[in-house]
Amino acid sequence: MVNVVVFGVGAVAILAIPSLDAQAKYPLPVWIAVTFGVGLVIARLLAPRVRLREHPGDRPNPGWR
Questions:
Q1: How would you label 10-46 residue by residue, b for 16+ Cβ within 10 Å and e otherwise?
Q2: What does the pLDDT read at residue 5?
Q3: Quick one: which H or E segment has residue 33?
Q4: Residue 52: phi, psi to the nearest 5?
Q5: Spatial CB neighbours of 40, under 8 Å, sequence gap ≥ 6
Q6: Across all residues in the chain, what is the average pLDDT?
Q7: Considering 3, 6, 16, 30, which has the largest number of Cβ atoms within 10 A of its Cβ?
Q8: What's the CA gap between 48 and 58, in Å, rounded?
């Protein structure tokens, strides 16, 4: 999902700038390649922060069922 967001931001920026829009066949493939690397780095930094720290099954059972 991170990769999609990064790609979308860059693609919109490339297509919104008139001078790049005319030459879109060159910067878009480059941006696709850059997105893979940037997406991996962002996902690697983000994953530990959004991981579930306390899974409900990890807690001791209080005896209520």
A1: bbeebeeeeeeeeeeeebeeebeeebeebbeeeeeee
A2: 92
A3: helix 27-50
A4: -70, 120
A5: 3
A6: 83
A7: 6
A8: 18
